[in-house]
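Dear support,

I submitted the protein below through the web form. The confirmation email said the job was done, but the results page showed an empty box. After a refresh the structure appeared. I'm attaching both so you can tell me whether what I see now is the final result or a partial one.
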Amino acid sequence: MNSENSVKTRKLTLLAILTAIIVVLQVITQFIKPGFFPITLSLTPIVVGAALCGAGAGAFLGFVFSVMVLLDPATGAFLAVSIPGTVITVLLKGTLAGYIAGLVYRAVEKKNQYAAAVCAGIVSPLVNTGIFFLGCLVFFAKYCVEVAARVGVTGGAVTAIAVVFIGANFFIELPVNVILSGAVVTLVRNGRKILKLDK
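What the results page shows now:
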């Protein structure tokens, strides 16, 4: 029983540390904006947490990331259009990015730990960006087209969202997550040894 409590305590400590890292990264990335929004560097600690502590932990860390996104001044423009649409989209995209990354990591880890980290590193930004894209289509299509027209991008909502609102960000976030996959494997291996977490 004490051993089980000890593992839970270590997991909670790890989640607290990863939560702090996510908050710090979100603050730092406010100054890195290749497009309209800051790039997302918080997906890597989310994947680490999901790999070490499971999909539920990934969902929690993704939720923390989502809350930080809601507090981002860049999100204010969406809140002005639709508060429920913004909250639903932002909370879903981060939370599911962490949860699904955790599920993918666990499924692939049985075959190869590095492949698991790469797959989770790919799935996390895909889910995050995919849900953002769908949220924009459902709640903000007209707004996205109007903003795109102001910067000279013509076409329908799909083009506006893909070019103006997703644009360079996704193509930076995806390779960063893949490149950091090796670091994720190292962190997971060392984390399991140091924290004595169950597989």
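Response: this is the final, complete result; the empty box was a page-load delay. The two ends are 18 Å apart (CA to CA).
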